[in-house]
Amino acid sequence: MEEERDPAAGAPRSAPPGDVGSSQESKTIAHDAYVERHPHISGRGLISASALGLADGLVTNLAFLTGFSGAVSSDSLIRFAGLAAMLAGTVSMFFGGILSARSEHDLFKADSDREAYEMEYETEEEKSEMKWIYMDKGLTEQEADMVVAKLLSDKGKFLEDMLTNELHVHRDNLQNPYKLGAVIGLSFLVGSFVPLAPYLAFARSSAVVASVAVSLTFLFAAGEWKGRIVKRKPLRSGLETLVIGAVAAGVLFVIGSLFAFV
Q1: 24 vs 6, 19, 97, 171, CA distance in Å?
Q2: Do 160 and 66 sit in the same domain of this protein?
């Protein structure tokens, strides 16, 4: 499209016939310019995990502390319970992130092994599946046959294409289990400390209001930050996250208050 050209690059020069190196260099420059003009969100998996950990930790401890403070009047007990919930949740989220990522790796390997077996022993069926995939994308039967024939010259590329188009999985989308676990765990730790901090600094009577105010402000800021990253309306994303946290805290406070009368 015309608007996607890089004005600084100027009009591409026609390569002399047979000048393959110059033609290839021009394609590389054009590709690099396109990638520069259209950057993708880097580390989207870790950003998503971080947002999950922050929100989960904050909402969980906010709801827990708000509800618990409605049932218990001891400041020291509330602080101890908040710290215990924060540490237990952090450890749980860390190992949960590791197990989740390991499961994704195992599932990908199982899918890859199965597709590789089918490519080897059920070649015609796999070729037919791939052909229909490309025909569903708008290619003619002849064009789809040409694409499949080209892919078959490299079984690794054929397998990668089949996994991507049929099963919608790709090796590059897999996360390092320990990195993912660390991101989720640390994010949960930070998130859960936000509502706990006022209880460590103030008495219960003042801490409840301060904790809710600080946590809801942080929730709104986190939601707005996430909205900016994913190109959503920041205000709407922030309000949505804030409302979810407020409702969760309110429900748990009512439940905790009811237990106080038991």
Answers
A1: 18, 9, 43, 28
A2: no
